[in-house]
Amino acid sequence: MTEVIVDRRQPVTLVGAGVLGAQDLALSLGLAPTLVAADGGALHALEAGHLPEAVIGDLDSLPQELRADIPAARLHHVSEQTTTDFDKALRMIRAPLVIAVGFMGGRIDHQLAGFNTLLQPHPSPCVLLGAQEVVFHLRAPFSLPMEAGEVVSLFPMQPVRGRSEGLEWPINGLELDPMARIGTSNRATGPLRLEADGPGLLVILPRARLADVVAALV
After folding, report:
1. Is 205 helix (H, G, I), strand (E, B) or coil?
2. Element of type H or E holding 153
3. Which of 45, 121, 136, 201 is paired with 184 by a 20 to 30 Å CA distance?
4. Which CATH architecture describes the domain 6-131?
5. pLDDT tens-digit readout, 197-211
6. Do 128 and 98 contact (CB within 8 A), yes or no?
7. 128 has which bridge partners?
8. What is the percent of the chain where pLDDT is above 90?
């Protein structure tokens, strides 16, 4: 059984070592006040004046000189190399929701690994915060009060069927498949409801909807 290092009844912010927008950390902490770092993400936290409650990962991206600024009890070394630090950290957080910042932008391979991590069976749902969008794995029926014309993109990471209300191009009766039909650049016609028959469907919504997405998922 995977050890749970951070167990909270409120949402958690997880910061990674990738590209971090100027307002990303503050925006996330306003909604998810417990701060955890995935390995080198601790640098972003310390630079912003925050001491993470836990630093989780293989710690190969955490400069040695920074370790003195973090109590040893908050450093959690996970030595295996088959998963990313993002995955390691999510496995060890139990909370109503995790907002992950510092995992979008920058290297494409890191972003793809992040999308893959969203699909893994972690204890908590997770929302990736990017410069323009938020991304999450549709694990349960989801509703959101959207306005007509807002962009709604659906990307299947494996074959999956679903149902929708409030989309200009509904997905009812369709099989979405990364090798065939995908569902990007759709548009809301009003309040949105999505449901999938199984795992594998990523939902991509405007960044401005972060607070609404968090409230809906929690």
Report:
1. strand
2. strand 151-156
3. 121
4. 3-Layer(aba) Sandwich (3.40)
5. 999 999 999 999 999
6. no
7. 100, 135
8. 82
Give the pLDDT of residue 198.
Answer: 95
pLDDT at residue 1 is higher than 60: no
Amino acid at 6: V
* Superfamily designation of domain 142-207: Thiamin pyrophosphokinase, thiamin-binding domain (2.60.120.320)
How far is the C-alpha of 18 from the C-alpha of 27, rounded, in Å?
Answer: 17
Residues of the chain with CATH 2.60.120.320: 142-207
Across 17-105, where does the E strand assignment appear?
34-38, 54-57, 75-77, 93-94, 98-101
Name the H helices within 53-133. 64-67, 85-91, 108-118
Q: Is 87 exposed, middle or buried (0-12, 13-18, 19+ CB in 10 A)?
A: buried
Residue 54 has pLDDT above 60, yes or no: yes
Q: What is the pTM of this model?
A: 0.94
Residue 160 CB partners (closer than 8 Å, separation 6+): 175, 176, 177, 196, 197, 198, 199, 200, 201
End-to-end Cα separation, the chain, in angstroms: 25
Number of neighbours of residue 209 by Cβ within 10 angstroms: 19
Residue type for position 216: A
